[in-house]
TrEMBL record:
Domain of life: Bacteria
Pfam families reported for this sequence: HGSNAT_cat (PF07786)
Keyword field contains Acyltransferase: yes
Full protein name: Predicted acyltransferase
Signal peptide (residue range): none
Lineage: Bacteria, Pseudomonadati, Bacteroidota, Cytophagia, Cytophagales
Single GO term (MF): acyltransferase activity
Location of the Heparan-alpha-glucosaminide N-acetyltransferase catalytic domain: 7-226
Organism: Cyclobacterium lianum
Keywords: Acyltransferase, Membrane, Transferase, Transmembrane, Transmembrane helix
Annotated TM spans: 12-31, 51-69, 85-103, 115-132, 139-156, 195-216, 228-246, 252-276, 288-312, 332-357
Length: 365
């Protein structure tokens, strides 16, 4: 089928709303007062918040398919693309390391891994896969990674324990990270964005490549929406079935977690595509498009602005606590006040996003 690269409003909006959701759950008024759905599952299990990060990695894969199909159609030689892919991945990775260092820049406690670092790796791998493999090879590779990861995590004993375990800091992924990762890890002896668990996270990006393949096909639009949603359902069911022997766990990015969240992303993208691009119901998408136009830039700005709102003190108290104390003293429940602050912080980050969008400034890290 002849591919088409028409820009999708639904994809742009979904990317932006995903970034807005990331900011919402990352910056509550107080971590002591948060509604449970806005927290990650403590270990095994799944909350609404656990879908956000895999959704973004899935969108990275879809975006790679669109961006590099356009370049290939434009006659860009692959050799030119390699350098740009490598440079962009390195920039995103280094910005992630920079965010880990601020504000103290204590290099002895530097954390190498992180959200942006994993995004950089997934983008790098997916971009090269897209340029050098077809969708069938991508399916085989994704299945092979998920099966291999499951077998490794559930059959190979960790050398320091002498047995197979899937507990925090006591599993094969944590052991590998302790051996290979320099510097500090997020949870002391393990890291949720570690090296080994990045392998199944790459599969989340590959699922996005496959979704992009469907959207780029010169097919009836409604049929493409149906394909996306129809493929999402068996992925979710297979993930739930797999969870009986390999629990759903975001921290380990288990194979079951990959399929459940990836399948849900298929369904969400298919539904958004049908509503927005097929039926033309674009009301309410503008905020998402504005956030999504500079998605990673807005994520970085939120981290930097948080220093002002959470670390700097005014009259002996940080701004977030001034806001929280003001609302709770007026009678609002603490968790609701914390949520309102998070929404306010999302709104504050919308301002620079809007200004960049209005001036047609699109920062590509």
């Amino acid at each position: 089928m002849t591919p088409t690269t028409t820009r999708l409003i639904s994809l742009d909006a979904l990317r932006g709303f995903t970034i807005a959701a990331m900011i919402l759950v990352n910056y509550p008024g107080s971590w002591n007062h948060v509604f449970p759905p806005l927290l990650h599952a403590s270990w095994n299990g799944l909350t609404m918040t656990d879908f956000i990060y895999p959704f973004f990695l899935f969108i990275v894969g879809v975006s790679v398919a669109f961006a590099y199909t356009k370049r290939l159609q434009g006659g860009f030689p692959k050799e030119e693309m390699y350098k740009k892919i490598l440079v962009r991945s390195l920039k995103i990775f280094l910005v992630g390391v920079f965010l880990n260092l601020i504000p103290d820049f204590n290099f002895s406690e530097m954390r190498i891994t992180g959200v942006l670092q994993r995004i950089a790796i997934v983008f790098l791998v997916c971009a090269f896969l897209f340029l050098h493999t077809d969708w069938k090879k991508q399916v085989y590779l994704a299945g092979g990674i998920l099966l291999s990861y499951w077998l490794a995590m559930t059959l190979i004993p960790t050398p320091d324990e002498g047995k197979v375990m899937l507990e925090p800091g006591r599993n094969l992924a944590a052991w590998i990270d302790r051996i290979l990762l320099p510097g500090r890890m997020w949870e002391g002896n393990w890291d949720p964005e570690g090296l080994f668990s990045t392998l199944p996270a790459i599969v989340t990006g590959i699922l996005g490549l496959l979704a992009g393949k469907i959207l780029l096909a010169d097919n009836n639009q409604q049929l493409k929406a149906n394909y996306l949603m129809a493929l999402g359902v068996p992925l979710v069911l297979l993930g739930l079935l797999w969870a009986q022997v390999f629990p759903i766990n975001k921290h380990l990015w288990t194979s079951s977690f990959t399929l459940v969240t990836g399948g849900t992303a298929f369904i969400a993208l298919g539904a958004c595509y049908f509503l927005v691009d097929v039926l033309g119901k674009q009301k309410g998408t503008r905020a998402g498009i504005i956030f999504g136009a500079n998605a990673i830039t807005v994520y970085v700005l939120a981290d930097i602005l948080s220093l002002l709102f959470y670390r700097a003190e005014f009259a002996g108290t940080s701004l977030n606590m001034h806001f929280l104390n003001g609302l709770t003293s007026s009678g609002l429940p603490a968790k609701l006040a914390s949520l309102l602050y998070a929404l306010l912080f999302v709104g504050i980050n919308f301002i620079p996003a809007y200004l960049l969008y209005k001036r047609k400034i699109f920062i590509k890290l």
